[in-house]
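Final report, Chapter 2: Outcomes

The project's central promise was a pipeline that accepts a single protein chain and returns its three-dimensional structure in a standardized token representation, suitable for archiving and comparison. That pipeline is now operational. To close this chapter, we reproduce one record exactly as it appears in the project archive, with the input sequence first and the structure output second.
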Amino acid sequence: ITTLINHKDNTKKSDKTLQAIQRVGQAVNLAVGRFVKVGEAIANENWDLKEEINIACIEAKQAGETIAALTDMSSLNRPESDGQITIFTDKTGVIKAARLLLSSVTKVLLLADRVVIKQIIRSRNKVLATMERLEKVNNFQEFVQIFSQFGNEMVEFAHLTGDRQNDLKDEKKKAKMAAARAVLEKCTMMLLTASKTCLRHPNCESAHKNKEGVFDRMKVALDKVIEIVTECKPNGETDISSISIFTGIKEFKMNIETLRENLYFQSKETLSAMLDALLERTEDFTDCAYTSHEHRERILELSAQARMELQQLISVWIEAQRKKTKSIDEELELAILKISHSLNELKKELHSAAVQLAADLVKYYADHVVLKALKLTGVEGNLEGLAEYACKLSEQKERLVETCRLLRHVSGTEPLEITCIHAEETFQVTGQQIISAAETLTLHPSSKIAKENLDVFCEAWESQISDMLTLLREINDVFEGRRGEKYGYLSLPKPMKNNANLKSLKPDKPDSEEQAKIAKLGLKLGLLTSDANCEIEKWEDQENEVVRYGRNMSSMAYSLYLFTRGEGPIKTSQDLIHQLEVFAEEGLKLASSVQAFSKQLKDDDKLMLLLEINKLVPLCHQLQAVTKTPLQNQVFLKLDKSITKTRCIMATLVQLLSLCYKLLKKVR
């Protein structure tokens, strides 16, 4: 659509140009047709939205057909075509059709999104209803039947929410969804053993307390998922979680830096209040019993220094408002740099304090001595031992919870903040549940199910301790500027080891001319994927090996086309190389499959097919060679060569698919 709208009217109308315009129009219409099919299928399954979706689908279809008609240049060279309306004679017609198309497609997408949200809510309601039955059941056989149903419902809910998590663009929401889903996944096993323990020991208070804790946590997690997908909090609540220190420092620095451009943009009172609020939050570190004396002293020293430097900045600022001279401007710049430096030093100190404390704790608790002791006192029925080790676990829990709060301040990104909050909640809740599970076992030392239940909760604790190592590594990566992507793209092949080539692909921003060339190559590649899809749709047997490999190659080529537009799942040079390697491998597999098919053909037909295969195989090998060739700092050159080769392979693929289809009909 963008190509058609930006098309220049005065462009020379060569046959090549006319053909290109026609192919773009056909590609749009074809894509709309596929989109409408999916929309209509959704409408048929959702009667309450059927009319709205169908109207939007009809509008989209009409717009697609209009664009195809206006770009149909096939009869333009005939004498009787003088009165034909085309993109050259009616540019506004294409623009109107494009607007209608985008509007109707957006409507379908929004309605389809409502369908997905309703599916998740419906699935959550089913899970909740079954949970209520599980809470009330007091017969073991009935429990087994209901839990089996509950398991199936949880699997469905996990699939729906997993798809939703992958679709979310907001990293903060994505992290919240991941945390809620992790709780539900772990709690499902806990719910099984906790409920079985309650059924086996119905008069045991600690067993009931343990079970109630699991149900409560699952209900909170289910509500959290609905809150994320519907984007609204129950009873109009607002997010009351306080801002982290690192976020506060970032906002404060942004505010003082505006003084370079505008001396009247901020008030002195606002900046003073911001710094006071920021430094007040450092009390989480200085008041913490586990912060080392050296870190505490240094944090207090840097806080006092930041306050003093703000006063210095304010006095220079007032002077600068009175008179505008070069020396005053220099003093103001120096004052801004000084306070920024102090705050950076404070950040380093806070990061060091939190990370060092967390690393020491994780190392110290890695042997899980207290958990082992609780299990032993349980099977021995030792109530005195239980009291002693329950107290030790509570102390451990408090230290870990406090450490998670400090880590949240220095996490550096919102998704990592969410992970810190999730870890804090997990230690808080699981710690209490381990104690209640241990108490149940101590009261019933010969109970196998009580022992199994305690094991499940201890495993959850050990798993969270292990997750802390990953969290620390990610926080360090962000702090040191080595931030990796927290959420991978599942559709991409996994990174391979020992790929020496990746080092050669350093970020290298192409100039505007290079970008234009890449965009042009990408567009041609996008059109070829459309041609390939047209050929694939002709085949009756969609599971045919040739079709399957062709479809995979077309899908990967389309991802490469999106990459040239700065869109789609391919985000880095590494992703690109992996995608190209897999694309070349699929091409070679397709060639083998076509070669096997050629054995069924007569000599002339076989020769014709082998000629096409002989074009494809060398192209795939050449693409593999391009991906393996180190080109120092020449990212554009490598990208140019890769897309050119991919385009040649796709052009050959289109020819092969068409030829195979014709020859297959002939054989039959």
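Archive annotation: Residues 484-510 have pLDDT under 50 and may be disordered.
This record, like all others produced under the grant, will remain available to the consortium after the project formally closes.
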